[in-house]
């Protein structure tokens, strides 16, 4: 009469099959997780922009989102991003100006054509509209983006024309090269 359980041979065969399945699926799972990481960063960045715009509207104060370095906005969008109230309107963070929130630095690239995104007291952009590109940094084809319109609204980039690539503000495929 057989006891309940598995034999050593059955366990070894199961482990070998599981090992083969993991080996086969690892590259696609790795790409899936990296793509999700870029998507998560895009969502967090878009949420930061929404919060900054709402603060500007609610308190009738200009708010700036940018990568701060020693109180001044830089062009290193991969670094830590800060949203702060620009009460004196000089475009840099003073000692008495409140930092609303920060977004940590990332190991991949964030690229934007300007050093800051500025919301006026009416919630409209006082800088140019554009797309913040979020790129894996290699030729993997992994990218995402956050679109900021002149009205101050923002959204995570989508494939609007169904060509398999996310589109920027102007409807062109986002490119990370």
UniProtKB/TrEMBL annotation:
Residues 42-152 form the General secretion pathway GspH domain. It is a single-pass membrane protein. One of its GO terms (biological process) is protein secretion by the type II secretion system. GO terms for cellular component: plasma membrane; type II protein secretion system complex. Residues 157-177 are annotated as: Disordered. PROSITE patterns: PROKAR_NTER_METHYL (PS00409). It is found in: Cell inner membrane. The chain crosses the membrane at residues 6-26. The keyword Repeat does not apply. SUPFAM superfamilies: Pili subunits. Signal peptide: none annotated. Pfam families: GspH, N_methyl. Keywords: Cell inner membrane, Cell membrane, Membrane, Methylation, Transmembrane, Transmembrane helix. Its main location: membrane. InterPro entries: N_methyl_site (IPR012902), Pilin-like (IPR045584), T2SS_GspH (IPR022346). Belongs to the GSP H family. This is Type II secretion system protein H.
